[in-house]
Write a structure and sequence with these properties.
The protein is an alpha+beta fold and 212 residues long. It contains three helices and twelve strands; from the N terminus they run ααββββββαββββββ.
């Protein structure tokens, strides 16, 4: 009798999971996009983990970011990047070098926080995936499958906090047994940001080489 009850519960869970299709996944992602767009500004810390179990590799790095409209400031891997809406400034203290570029010519910094929050809107097919509870928070995952052939990427898993409709975690599964996990934490919205937060002041870097 006990086994029969467990089996019925498993079948019910499987049915519920399959009942949520691509339409529900896309609807949830649209809700996330609308929620984020409603904020005047947003800031958060994040943890970035790179893993390859086959080669016994695990690297963990922390960073933080602030966003207001198209403008952003991000600190990651010991470097800093500013985008003031027109120009991108990448500051590398280790080399005492600053690279200035237009938005169109912007070099890949690894993470663009403004794109991080909306990248999933194009180029992917959606599937409803599992729900997990993290410290009591309901996190619903949506699987994103590249709509075009991608030699590096199998799929993405986007974890969404169902209470706030904000991204909690992004997991990228590569074809070479590489897995990267980006987890957002200490998220703050509509706060007072420091004056000039997204502005570049060359006077603060008198000895740096500036590469235009």
């Amino acid at each position: 009798m006990k086994k029969k009850v467990i089996l019925n519960l498993l079948l019910l869970s499987s049915f519920f999971l399959s009942a949520q299709g691509p339409e529900e996944a896309e609807k949830l992602l649209n809700e996330v996009s609308a929620t984020i767009a409603s904020f005047k500004n947003m800031s958060f810390d994040f943890t970035y983990v790179l893993e390859n179990r086959t080669e016994n590799i695990r690297q963990e790095t922390n960073g933080n970011a602030a966003i207001s409209g198209d403008r952003y400031k991000i600190n990651f891997l010991g470097n800093e990047q500013l985008f003031d809406g027109k120009t991108t400034y990448t500051i590398v203290p280790e080399n005492e070098e600053i690279t200035i570029s237009s938005q169109e010519d912007d070099a890949d910094f690894g993470i663009n926080p403004t794109q991080l929050l909306v990248f999933y809107k194009t180029g992917y097919a959606y599937q409803w995936d599992i729900k997990q509870y993290v410290k009591g928070r309901p996190i619903q995952f949506v699987k994103l499958l590249p709509s075009e052939e991608n030699n590096d990427l199998k799929y993405l898993l986007l974890g969404i906090d169902m209470r706030t409709k904000i991204i909690y975690r992004l997991i990228e599964i590569g074809k070479g047994d590489t897995r990267t996990t980006l987890t957002l934490k200490n998220i703050k919205t509509n706060t007072k940001l420091a004056d000039g937060l997204f502005s570049f002041d060359a006077n603060k870097f008198p000895d740096y080489y500036i590469n235009n």
